Hints:
By secondary structure, the chain is α/β, with parallel strands linked by helices. It has helices at 7-14, 61-70, 167-174, 180-199, 221-231, 271-285, 303-320, 361-366, 383-392, 398-401, 412-427, 459-467, 482-502, 511-519, 530-542, 551-563, 570-583, and strands at 18-19, 22-23, 27-34, 42-45, 50-54, 93-101, 106-114, 123-125, 156-160, 206-207, 210-211, 213-218, 237-243, 253-260, 262-265, 291-295, 323-328, 342-347, 353-356, 376-380, 404-408, 431-435, 503-505. The strands form 6 sheets. A 6-stranded mixed β-sheet has the order 9-16-17-5-18-19, with helices on both faces. A 5-stranded antiparallel β-sheet has the order 4-3-6-7-8, with no helix packed on it. A 4-stranded antiparallel β-sheet has the order 12-13-14-15, with helices on both faces. The longest helix has 21 residues, at 482-502. It is globular.
Amino acid sequence: MSKHDGITALVETLEKFKPGNPLRHYITHAVFPKFKNIEPGMRIDFDFPLTALVGANGIGKSSLLHALWGMPYGYSTSKFWFSTDLDPIVEPQRYFYGYWNEDCNNIVETRKARIGKKADYWEPYRWSAPDGMMPMLDGNFASKAKDRWHPVRRKVVYINFRALFGSFDRFFYFDNDFGKENRHKVMLQAAHRLKIIKEEFRLSYMLGRRQRIFENRTLEQNELDEVSKILGRSYDAAHLIRHSLYPGNRGKDLSVIFKRGSEYSEAFAGSGEIAAVSTVVDVLAAEDYSLILLDEPETSLHPGAQRALLKFLLEQIKLKKHQVVLSTHSSEFLTELPHTAIKVFEDNGNFQCRILPRSSPAAALNRLGKLPQNKRRILVEDSLAELLVLHAAQSLDIGDRETFEVKIAPGGAESILKYLGPSSMVSGDNVFIMLDGDKKKVEEFSDPNKIAPADYAGLDDLIKRELGLSPKYFIQGGQGDDAHKKAKIDSHLKYLEWLRVHLSFFPKTLPEHIILEALDPAHSYSELDSNSAKKKLKELLSEGAKIELDAEQISTLAKVKIASIPQSNTDLAAIRKCLEIWLHI
Length: 585
């Protein structure tokens, strides 16, 4: 996804947010000694103010959202999970969590448990060393009892997108107790009443001694603007009515009448429009420092709308310091998030789920059976370099590993840096370069943002000094032309920025040095020049046999030998660290 959508900048800002500064009442982590199908003792840390839960259907993502719902004061997990004859709850169920406590300006832990005779009652419970809770802080605080910390106080907003329906859809598709003609009659009658209620701005409408109107208003301009951004279309107006005008004790139905040129109700609107309105209204109404829980927000929203919703949520965190936790199967909610913000749920082999502490989007989605897209291509100089990179990548998560492809570039390092690098910079492809260590001229390329305009005349020499050659840019205009000079300066500056991100080097001068010292650690080979290193490697691969090896045989034998190098090798670890950095780009 393009970084120009503003999400990257928002993420960079929110990464600086910390519990207590400015995130008040922030839940920092949760631990589950015994809770539903979560592996006993499993811990999840909320390292970023928006956390994405990823995993297969039925793995436990919603269970975690239900636990989070019940954590604050005045809320109970029993709203979502209660014992029945068909699904009895085996006692004692419990969890504890840490939160930033403003009384003591520190993180404290509190526990809630379903213990005792009260059916489905989750109560704050005393501190427990066996469950692994941290020691209680000394001192007298208003939020502390003798043997426990009181639950965190914050508002919770929970939106289950799978259950977001307009009133028309709820009645039309789910209420089948009426014959076709009677059902149509009921719907016509409800539509007639809704029209009167809207046009007369009624705040009360009684049927059968029951109040049937709970909210009746037009959307505020800021609400309408956010809905328009998410859905990618402009609305002249929208009118929201929460009601129970359809038969049965249905609670609150939602009707929305949109205006885009002409008016139309949710009966003709897409389900995504209803979801966008409901979410925007609820999130904008949330008070500062709220805990916002979203279950599969991608439901009914196209990919662009999903990205826009993510941006909206990040903006609201920035403005009102919310904490957001969402469950998702969509890459649109994962791309550009910090890897510590992505928590993967997977089966532990004992019909329980474990939660991985961090994941790249590719690794998370790989577990859902989604093949990687927008692969990252790594250009190297020769087959030995290719084999080393591929071997170093073996200890990455399979989803991360499959996002990389390694290619040997014809023409070697000079061709890569002179032609392929500038071309990739212009095309915007996910191309990265890993060259032999002997091509490294400087520890770090100059930061173009720190080069003064007065020094632009020396950019040709600076590039040649730091890169070892003069790159070939694709610049329009004649030689000596002012526009051409300006374009070349811009290209120099952009290429420096590109190289700082996309170019790296092997930790040793030559790939041969890495292989030789890994296979024969008792000796140092770093002083060998290229020809000597190649000769020594041939001797090692042939194991002393007096035979002449061609290039293909050398590559085959090297592949076998390289595969035996342990992943703990420091040179492989350095290569792998570079790959992990590139995963974030």
